[in-house]
């Protein structure tokens, strides 16, 4: 499959194992790191906060605090645990919203599971990378419950 490839930029051992599985040659692997333009995200987040979080109002989020999930709706992200934890904590977090920014094959299942805390759960769908800085800026906390992730780039972004 990779006979015409001169080099691979890899991001870890799991990535290298994947390439090897399909015929990639280890001597062509060159380690790279995940790159995020942290300054771009930080600038957009700071602007959102300085302006009084207008995106939060625009999205119709009425709660004072926002817990944010960003990512694909797939089993590896363990969104079920996020929802169960939020539902359990809701009595003491009554002025808190759980916002999901993302999409994926498990979204209908997640939306159905969210019904018990529906008035505090918001689905804002997939967002372009240039929108994420403001979304992080409206949040008070980020949740990442992945059971398998090479590295959650959302940590760098947030």
Automatic annotation (TrEMBL):
What Gene3D superfamilies does the annotation carry?
Glycogen Phosphorylase B
Q: Which Pfam families match?
A: Glycos_transf_1
Q: Where is the Glycosyl transferase family domain?
A: 56-158
Q: GO MF annotations for this entry?
A: glycosyltransferase activity
Among PANTHER family, the record links this protein to:
SULFOQUINOVOSYL TRANSFERASE SQD2
Q: What is this protein called?
A: Glycosyl transferase family 1 domain-containing protein
Species the sequence originates in: marine sediment metagenome
